[in-house]
Amino acid sequence: MLQRTLVREYYRQNVAFYLFLLLFCFGFMSGQEHRQLITVIMARPALLIFVGLAWFFHVLKSALFVHQTLQEQEYAFLQDNSILPFKHKWTSLLALQLNLNLPFALYAAAMMTLGLMNQNYISVALVISVNLVLLFAPVIWLNRRFLNFNKEIGITKYFKFQFIPKHRIFYFVRFLLNEKWVLYVSMKIYSVFFIVAAARLFPTDEYDFRLLGLGVFLGSVGLFPLGVEKINFESQKLGFERNLPFDQASKFTSIVLEAFVLIIPEIILIAYNWFDKVSLFQLAGAILYLLAALTFWYCIQYSSFASRKDFNSKMFFVAVFQFLLVMFKVPLLLSAIIILTLSGFIVRRNYYNFELLQSDDK
Hints:
Blueprint: H1 2-13, H2 15-27, H3 31-43, H4 48-69, H5 86-100, H6 102-117, H7 121-147, H8 171-179, H9 181-201, H10 209-221, H11 224-237, H12 248-262, H13 264-274, H14 280-299, H15 311-327, H16 332-350
Helix pairs in contact: 1-5, 2-15, 3-6, 4-7, 4-9, 5-7, 6-7, 8-9, 9-10, 9-13, 10-14, 10-15, 11-14, 12-14, 12-16, 14-16
């Protein structure tokens, strides 16, 4: 039951992320290069700290997804998992956690295999230990989460973020922090990780400024779920706005300002980590690109294209194309202007014709 609901929905929502990860890891690195990389890591156990952090963030990402999903009314039937026989319940939870993190578990298995072949027994023991912790700790949490299925869990139980202004451009961020804080935190962890990690890798070669582009691009890809949540929020809470005398320019300006509010933490991090590393032109381009990307994720949901079954796969190819533009040193500022222009066109053409279908709400 858990595999057919949570696991299937998790990979459906994150298909673009994993396809891009496969392209990035296996399209630009050969099998021999992966083998050499694993050999170096296993020969130097200290490097496993960085690998462990990557695994931890992935486990956190999947755990946050489960927590958020179980808050949806349509998944209320899953609380029956808590009354299953002991053996069946824990087996299903173990299978759920293993399947949610299967891509990284398979890579860990490859690391252990090469480690044993090269007699790196300490590193193998560390990999096994870390993966056991990252398997059983979430399972224990999952069991508690199912036992407390209908209880409010989290920081919003104690704090409702009432200090946030009540202006229109803050409606969505207030909603996220009060009702969808898990989604908000997971998206911030994802984008911040790539922005900071890219800065820490600087410098590497004569094309160092591309690291900023890659960090911002990968961070922007992770903001995609916010676009889906935004359109659901508008349809459920603010549907009356389309009956008000707002022109399309005002609506688009409001969307851009809402996106700006949400990426303020990323803007601060970009400025702090990259100010002394790249030119002001490149810095401004990176900030505007992140703003344009989130604006696009908002606006594309107004089009009928977003309801098509092949939407995620099409967006994957768009992401690959944008990745190639970054690698070929196309200025981020130019890409940002094009994306903002396209977003404005989408709003102008689709806003008053948009209607959220029941299938889109999934």
